[in-house]
Amino acid sequence: MMINNKTAGLQLGDEPILRCTGIERRFGGVVAVTGVNLEVKPGEIFGLVGPNGSGKTTLTNAITGFYPPNEGAVRLSGKDITGTAPHKVAKLGVARTFQNLALFNGMSVLDNILLGRHIHMNPGVLRTAFYWWAARPEEIENRKVVEEVIEFLQLESIRHELVDGLPIGLKKRVELARALVAEPQMLILDEPMAGMNQEEKGYMCRFILDARAERGVSVLLIEHHMDVITGICDRMLALNYGEMIASGIPKEVVKDPRVIEAYIGGSHG
Ligand SMILES: Nc1ncnc2c1ncn2[C@@H]1O[C@H](COP(=O)(O)OP(=O)(O)OP(=O)(O)O)[C@@H](O)[C@H]1O
Predict the structure, then answer these.
(1) What residue stretches are annotated with the ABC transporter domain (predicted)?
(2) Cβ of residue 55 lying under 6 Å from some atom of ligand 1
(3) Is this complex's ipTM strictly greater than 0.85?
């Protein structure tokens, strides 16, 4: 895949935006991840790979608070967020998309995207009812951000369509839009190219690179397509059976015999 992996003038900083140390998460007798260390620096696109069942989703759930780790620590820009509830992690600037699409059928593209803005919305319904004029600037700001992202991801022509009937490529783009309107500093994408053809993958890669360049997000990207990982990621980590087997520069990691073996070994599912 021919993708120009330029950071568009962004300097990759030294202080990590996300730092995981010694993460372990167990489900009953199953050790889903153990001893995982990971650092994502500001402006980095960081790839996370591994065969089915290797612990990728569990690790992101540990970071985002869905399944807090049993051991280890998660730091966001130096702040310890280990075990913090998902909605609080979102408020701190971490947005995610899900492996299995989490869009709301029966709702339009626009309404689905607006939902991503809820972390910036004032929950004071009563206040809004009595002091509607106080809510206006907030409402205008929310709409402004949503419109920017719709334009950025070229969703204008389908904004009023129901998400139900959209092809997978567009659904994934709507999910990305919903994550971006939260204006995150850290974006976690769980297999954003699953089920896409080569052309759709190319578009999605371009949008991720542009989101980093133009919106300043750092990205943790779970992906099975190795051409995507080598094409757009700065660094990567490979898991197998919940453990780290290789990390570093993608072009080198994908040649690591342990990584090749893990993938040739196929699904553990
Ligand atoms: N809620 C859960 N309860 C019990 N076991 C779980 C749970 N979530 C994950 N696991 C187990 O933890 C291990 C890691 O699963 P996980 O979904 O994190 O892997 P993955 O790398 O994301 O896989 P895939 O690529 O298929 O999504 C698997 O053995 C899985 O069965």
Answers:
(1) 18-266
(2) yes
(3) yes
